[in-house]
Amino acid sequence: MLYLSTRGHADRKRFCEILLEGLAPDGGLYLPEQYPQLDAAALTRLRQVWSSQGYASLAFEILSLYIDDIPAADLKALCDKTYTRAVFGTDEIVPLKPLQAAGASAPELYLEALSNGPTLAFKDMAMQLLGNLFEYELARRGEELNILGATSGDTGSAAEYAMRGKKGVRVFMTSPNGRMSPFQQAQMFSLLDANIHNIAIDGVFDDCQDIVKAVSNDLDFKRRYKIGTVNSINWARLLAQVVYYFAGYFQATQTNEQKVSFTVPSGNFGNVCAGHVARMMGLPIDRLVVATNENDVLDEFFRTGVYRVRGTADTHETSSPSMDISKASNFERFVFDLIGRDGARTKQLFGEGLARTGHFDLSGDACFAQAATRYGFASGKSTHANRLDTIRQVFAQYGAMIDTHTADGVKVAREHLKVGVPMLVLETALPIKFAATLVEALGREPNRPAQFEGIEALPKRVQVMPADVSVVKAYIVTHCD
Ligand SMILES: *Cc1c(COP(=O)(O)O)cnc(C)c1O
């Protein structure tokens, strides 16, 4: 399997070459040259693998279709080491929870639990695999990598929990000092592993991002100190996410004739893009419903055909903060497919076009209608008031507590239910991470998994620094060996 860039660059690369890279040289995103096609027999076989051998074996089967430069036995061992009950809490790894009223003949919908990993958010599903893949590939090459990132919450802690103790990898994670929830701060800063460096910047999230950009743009420094990233455009992360669409499908259905729909709480379009890949491979998905919060860049596109990047002033801070985006960094992958894999046009739309005007408009293009008809996409939007209502309703109707992002998903899923087509809402975080909004909705603290009792009181390891690139660089230099 070879990978191409969405912007038409002529180079083709193999999986391990793009594993440690970010963007393609032309600024595009990597995608496989074609999506492997699963016929009825192949789907039946995957269902059997899943039911008899479990999630890790299913992951191996799907990853093998895209990775041919890691020996099969090694890849299997990496999957087996990643997807365990010890890390994800259950043997199912991503169990389905039906929301079904007493006396009803079928569930209203299902929650697919993706948030039982170490940081209680779905990013663990991919990041845990990435940690093991990085360690494996760096050892094979005899190289080291220093991951530099900026986080306002979920991504940073998922990356740190995935990379802690890994050989050849260090993490330097910046976050805005004092601006994450006490639970999130405790989760990150209580990691005492020598290869994990928490850097609290006196500033806001944008200051952290600017520092990361400035360091990455200093090509000499980047090369000399082997700076890399783990952001959501990484193809390996997206690929790992494809697996749980299959696992959800097999749990919700008896036969491969049955279709299901998924609703995905979305920000950067990484999670739902994995659903798109699963559907392109032949998984019988009816609708892929994109749920946004007040930052409705994606809902606007699927309603109107206009993709409009928001400025800082139009990017809202919401109570589902992991979906607070001004642009959706993985969206280019889908648009590339939508416009018939035309690299030159993708480059024009996302390169010059967005840089000049901040938007593009596909409403007049015949392909736009296909987003719904051929690719199954639908969308909707949820606000703070919707979120509170939905959290209350789901608790009253089903006794289930859901987090704010999952609530956005349930709210929008309810607008797209179809008789005879099970709806799976991806549960992307647990409520304890967003306790303040849960208290606002329900008047009580959310349940806390036992292993997180008292984490706020644990010793913390964090360096506070001014929003100054040279100070951060100096810290990296002195902690690189
Ligand atoms: C990251 C995140 C999302 C958004 O996922 P994308 O892949 O960026 O669309 C939704 N919910 C939670 C809890 C997250 O951490």
From TrEMBL:
InterPro entries the UniProt entry points to: Thr_synth_N, Thr_synth_N_sf, Thr_synthase-like, Threonine_Synthase, TrpB-like_PALP, TrpB-like_PALP_sf
MF term (GO), any: threonine synthase activity
GO biological process: threonine biosynthetic process
Location of the Tryptophan synthase beta chain-like PALP domain: 98-343
Keywords attached to this entry: Lyase, Pyridoxal phosphate
Residue ranges occupied by any Threonine synthase N-terminal domain in the UniProt entry: 3-83
Pfam families assigned: PALP (PF00291), THR4_C (PF24857), Thr_synth_N (PF14821)
Family as reported in the entry's similarity comment: Belongs to the threonine synthase family.
Protein name: Threonine synthase
Annotated organism of origin: Limnohabitans radicicola
Lineage: Bacteria, Pseudomonadati, Pseudomonadota, Betaproteobacteria, Burkholderiales
